[in-house]
Amino acid sequence: MDGHFVVEQAARQASGLFLNFNGTAGVWRRAAIEASGGWQADTLCEDLDLSYRAQLAGWRLVYLPDLAVPAELPVQMEAFKRQQARWAKGSMQTTRKLIGPLLRARLPLGVKIEGVLHLTGYGVHPLILAAIALALPMSLIHSAVLRFVPYLMIVAVGPPLMSLLAGTPEGPGWRARLRLLPTLIALGMGLSLNNSRAVWDGLFARERGHFARTPKFAVGTGGDRWQASRYVLPLGGRAWGEVGLLVFALVSLVAITRQGGWGLVPWLLLYACGFAYVGGVSLWQAAELRVSLGREETTRVRSKRTNTAAGIPTTAPGRFRAGWQGQCR
After folding, report:
1. What b/e sequence results for 4-28 when a residue is b if at least 16 CB atoms lie within 10 Å of its CB, and e otherwise?
2. What does the pLDDT average to over 90-111?
3. CB atoms inside a 10 Å sphere around CB 291
4. How far apart are CA 250 and CA 266, in angstroms?
5. What is the distance between the alpha carbons of residues 20 and 12, in angstroms, rounded to a whole number?
6. Is 28 helix (H, G, I), strand (E, B) or coil?
7. Could you tell me which residues come within 8 angstroms of residue 175 by beta carbon, excluding any fewer than 6 positions away?
8. Residue 329 — pLDDT band, cuts 50, 70, 90?
């Protein structure tokens, strides 16, 4: 998130490029909304949609990088995947809706190119899946393309470098960011299955789809518990798909090394670590939730027995019978 706000948004504004309103922590002129066609509900990223329509209509967005606004990031992996899927699908819906007007607009070529890259950014995830699926067959047929794979490692430097440089006074220092980089890289790789489905739906599904909100748990410190919240999401089936892709990456890694394709080893290790991290955390949190719910159920039963013995009625949760005086409250 710091990479997006500190680097991407600030750089877009400084370069005169299109940027997006982030949904919260901002102010709109009513005239800009009305002149741009108003809020429209045909995409899941209505803020991105309106941002581009306003800029295509000649309005300018101003980003204030020095103004910090508190927000809550998802603490449950299933909640994070839901958020990312909504953003990926909404971005591609906005692409399908506005890429034509963007390319036809009287704008500098650089603005158009960056706008297309911005809108289609989540398209990298299907490419990640395609890369892992093609690695083994291309190695078996000794494809000439594989000789260029080691040189492509340079493209993996960009996102980690952006996050490393996106320091803020409120955030961790560069040493802490450096320690978090491996996890960040694994997270990006591991989300490819989740986001690829969303990208497909955004491009080809006729219906907008349901706006699935990101659960909030009011977690402020490491000691705050979220497992008992009514908003906790159940384990999704894609976690097992991520485990399957982990196995596939490891099998491909063994087969390719036997073929002498050592240039693919770093990529396959990244893919394997990513799917292990995202799928593993999802499964671990689901198991943790089952244990937590089991403990809470045991505590509830014990509490019910204790309250009944003390004379506190338990027939209606949260209520007392009429006339009960509240002894032992």
Report:
1. ebbbbbbebbeeebbbbbbeeeeeb
2. 96
3. 10
4. 12
5. 10
6. coil
7. none
8. very low
